[in-house]
Amino acid sequence: MSGAQASGAPGSHGPASGGFPHRFPGRLGDVLRVPAGGRVDLASYDPGAIPAGPRSKAAGLEAAAAAGERLAGLQERLYAAATAGDRRRLLLILQGMDTSGKGGTVKHVIGHFNPAGCRIKAFKAPTEEERDHHFLWRVARELPRSGDIGIFDRSHYEDVLIARVRGVVPRERIQRRYEEINAFERALAEDGVAIVKVFLHISRDEQRRRLLARIDNPDKHWKFDRGDIEERALWPDYQEAYERALEHCSSPEAPWYVVPADRKWYRNWAVSRLLLEHLEELDPQYPKGEFDIAASRRLLLEGG
């Protein structure tokens, strides 16, 4: 179950019976998507794999930069389309074990976008007020507006992950929450929200390396919590909780993608590529101007 079982060798893929497909059909989403209704065994997904796309860090950085330029243009078109009544928007949900790179991915992705059309929310432990409401209440309040791109660093899935591992709620209620999440996301999709859910998959060994790097660097001490070490004892339980969430909540309208995240450069490229594919599928268009172009030009040229 532990990610430490994966070799992390460059270009390595999971076994033929599971994990990443061996062929790249042209869309990264088709490679990384978790099939709806299928069983998930995270041990068959190599966190250090390069299942598709650039094969080196240099090529990955170049490809990510190129994708960034296209993302910026598509975001502007999405934002502009909303001014003419287009209700569509995009929501990126990032989940993963501690140190998997959720914050780093947000930092990378946000660099491509105009902040005016981007909404970021990092979900922490629920506040007292939030605990007094349904578990989806605090998430619904942070959804992107028409034309915006929303990014969730953690999300409503914490309520079927931590709640399951820690035994906060009974298992039968966890099962009901899967169903509530599916209904919630289905309603969002019907309302024009393109949902991109990414599980950043790292190995246990890589997590140890990243935690040690935080301990050894005084400038990173603010990011370290002793509880992160204690949580490592629950690694198998969290892997199982993620497997169940991916199994129950990957749907055609809101699919999960497993992104191998031991290589930070590959993680960043993969998430950028997934966003690009979804935005290209939306294909937002600039609205046509509702004014007399010739008259407006003439007014300016005549001293207006």
Automatic annotation (TrEMBL):
Source organism: Streptomyces tirandamycinicus
Chain positions covered by the region annotation Disordered: 1-24
GO biological processes: polyphosphate metabolic process
Stretches assigned to the Polyphosphate kinase-2-related domain: 63-284
Record Pfam families: PPK2
GO molecular function: phosphotransferase activity, phosphate group as acceptor
Keyword field: Transferase
Protein's UniProt name: Phosphate--nucleotide phosphotransferase
Alphabetical list of SUPFAM superfamilies matching this protein: P-loop containing nucleoside triphosphate hydrolases (SSF52540)
Stretches with biased composition (Low complexity): 1-19
